[in-house]
């Protein structure tokens, strides 16, 4: 069975965001999964951002799917119920034996590598994107967003889970390792050879400049797959950083040249030039600089929750104007004061004071 000529979409949108829980929004988490899935499958993107109601969103998605024609369609969602229900499941059209077989195989493969409860393949005649699509559609529920257990698994093993699904469908892999949610980052010395990922070994805030404490490679992509040139960047080289991005759970520095490097602390360090010109910036006062190092803050505008203190890091949720957070750290990076706390998933989160 070939699953080429497929479509993929994220359920819901910012206007009809779907379920929420553990500081996460369904449409944002599903977007991350959908993007990773399409990076490998090259599936036609049928996501809808225009529909202002749930019905309009569904109709727009269905129309896009059917414009592709008879095809395999994949819809990415997250479940929600009572905070204790958990597990992974896939919906398919009742009576479609091929879709059922695919759903069962994906459920078995994904749950085997993640430890999710296998809720199995479920038949339906009512879910719109399944009953209204030309061809065969499956709707994947990537765990329960209001289950801390499920979201911890998804945070740690997202790439592994997606890879298991891709393998069943006959595709390659996203840039995740076989044992964790991180990227398959090859044999470079800048990447840990152990199977245990420890974020404390990496810089997670953007610096203006970095210095190599040992020679290492620069790469053409954030996944650190393709080396730039034939030689490592020499020790003590100082380079300008323009961003901090993530590949899976691994943070990378994006350089002014457009290349990427590891943020491992044993490879690079922050470089601060001793120049009198820097004193001209000393009087710049950032919003939030007067806040205590820990406390409670009420947001004055809708503000993204991010996985690192950088505007280029992944948004994992949003605090609305008037909502509050209790934070235990305050850091300054990238021209912002960032408040930080441990979220319901057990992961450290950041929001800028804007």
Outline the secondary-structure elements.
Elements (H helix, E strand, L loop, with lengths): L5 E5 L9 E2 L2 E2 H16 L2 E2 L8 H15 L2 E9 L8 E6 L3 H18 L3 E7 L3 H4 L3 E10 L3 H21 L40 E4 L25 E10 L2 E6 L4 E3 L5 E3 L24 E4 L4 E4 L8 E5 L4 E4 L1 E5 L2 E7 L5 E5 L2
Parallel strand pairs: 1-4, 1-5, 5-8, 6-7
Antiparallel strand pairs: 2-3, 6-8, 9-10, 9-13, 10-11, 11-12, 14-17, 15-16, 18-19, 19-20
Helix pairs in contact: 1-5, 3-5
Organism: Candidatus Enterococcus testudinis
GO biological process, one term: peptidoglycan catabolic process
Protein name: MurNAc-LAA domain-containing protein
Strand content: 25-35%
Instruction: Sketch the topology as an H/E string, one letter per element.
Output: EEEHEHEEHEHEHEEEEEEEEEEEE
Largest sheet: 6 strands, mixed
Class by alpha and beta content:
alpha+beta
InterPro entries: DUF5776, MurNAc-LAA_cat, N-acetylmuramoyl_amidase_3, SH3-like_bac-type
Pfam families: Amidase_3, DUF5776, SH3_5
Protein name: MurNAc-LAA domain-containing protein
GO biological process, one term: peptidoglycan catabolic process
């Amino acid at each position: 069975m070939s699953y080429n000529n497929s479509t993929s979409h994220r359920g819901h949108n910012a206007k009809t965001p779907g379920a929420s829980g553990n500081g996460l929004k369904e449409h944002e988490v599903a977007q991350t999964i959908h993007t990773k899935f399409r990076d490998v499958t090259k599936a036609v993107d049928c996501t809808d951002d225009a529909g202002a109601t749930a019905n309009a969103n569904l109709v727009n998605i269905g129309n896009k799917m059917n414009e592709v024609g008879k095809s395999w369609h994949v819809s990415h969602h997250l479940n929600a119920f009572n905070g204790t229900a958990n597990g992974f499941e896939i919906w398919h059209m009742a009576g479609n034996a091929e879709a059922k077989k695919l759903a069962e195989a994906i459920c078995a493969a994904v749950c085997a590598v993640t430890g999710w409860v296998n809720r199995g393949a479920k038949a339906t005649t009512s879910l719109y994107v399944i009953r209204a699509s030309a061809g065969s559609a499956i709707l994947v529920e990537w765990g329960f967003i209001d289950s801390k257990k499920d979201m911890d698994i998804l945070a740690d093993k997202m790439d592994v889970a997606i890879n298991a699904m891709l393998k069943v469908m006959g595709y390659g892999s996203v840039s995740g390792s076989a044992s964790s949610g991180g990227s398959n980052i090859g044999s470079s010395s800048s990447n840990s050879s152990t199977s245990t990922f420890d974020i404390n070994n990496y810089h997670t805030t953007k610096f203006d400049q970095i210095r190599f404490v040992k020679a290492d490679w620069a790469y053409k992509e954030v996944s650190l797959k393709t080396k730039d040139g034939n030689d490592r960047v020499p020790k003590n080289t100082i380079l300008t950083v323009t961003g901090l991005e993530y590949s899976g759970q691994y943070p990378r520095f994006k350089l002014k040249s457009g290349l990427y490097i590891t943020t491992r602390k044993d490879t690079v360090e922050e470089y601060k030039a001793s120049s009198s010109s820097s004193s001209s910036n000393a009087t710049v006062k950032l919003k939030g600089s007067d806040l205590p190092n820990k406390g409670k803050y009420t947001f004055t505008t809708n503000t993204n929750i991010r996985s690192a203190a950088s505007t280029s890091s992944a948004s994992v949720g949003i605090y609305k104007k008037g909502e509050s957070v209790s934070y235990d750290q305050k850091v300054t990076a990238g021209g912002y004061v960032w408040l930080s706390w441990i979220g319901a998933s057990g992961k450290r989160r950041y929001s800028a004071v804007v």
